[in-house]
Amino acid sequence: MADEIDSPEELPSTAGELAEEYPEVWDEYADLGEACSEAGPIDDEAKRLVKLALAVGSQSEGAVHSHVRRGLEEDIDPEALRHVALLSIPTIGFPKAMAAMSWIDDLAE
């Protein structure tokens, strides 16, 4: 999975500012993301969907947008991305799942 962490110019303002002000910290963070991604046998599409599910579960709109954007760039079916939100209903509840669905649809529609 190429570049698990966005480059500074692709980041939301706060993260981009951190990356510019503390490039060593950002580089180490990016290296950690890459090491975690490469540490196991899960294929790239499944990794992206898992990362999206974690973002959904943590209710991080920015992370959901990031993983949806990258998933679409990786040619993951938008319905697979939406399925992640549907799968979250029993675990995190209908309102939170629907919020996540709206964040997915911000980019997937």
UniProtKB/TrEMBL annotation:
Report the source organism.
Halosimplex aquaticum
Provide the Carboxymuconolactone decarboxylase-like domain boundaries.
23-105
Q: What is this protein called?
A: Carboxymuconolactone decarboxylase family protein
Which InterPro entries is this protein grouped with?
AhpD-like (IPR029032), CMD-like (IPR003779)
Q: Where is this region: Disordered?
A: 1-20
Give the source lineage, highest ranks first. Answer: Archaea, Methanobacteriati, Methanobacteriota, Stenosarchaea group, Halobacteria
The protein's matches in Pfam families, at most eight in alphabetical order, are given as: CMD (PF02627)
